[in-house]
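Example record

One chain of 83 residues, shown exactly as stored in the release files.
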Amino acid sequence: MNWNDPEHRLALIERVGVAEYNRQFDRHRAASTVAVVNRHAIRPLGSHFGTIYMIDTLGVAFPTLEAAKQHAAKHENIFDALM
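Predicted structure tokens for this chain:
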């Protein structure tokens, strides 16, 4: 499964339905996490620019893992405030 390809994701959701798609995507997201900083998961993503590093809870991405880690370290995880 190519999670970076919108057409592949659409084909999967049409084939297995929303609940199963979400289960598989959650499993992929957990398996592809390369770092957790300040309770922010960081994952590599393929893009037109090459690999970028996405901070899921902040909705931002950086060209290097180190830059993503530094940014995550500066920001409180907003979901912690809800607990």
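Notes: The beta strands are 35-37, 40-47, 50-55, 60-62.
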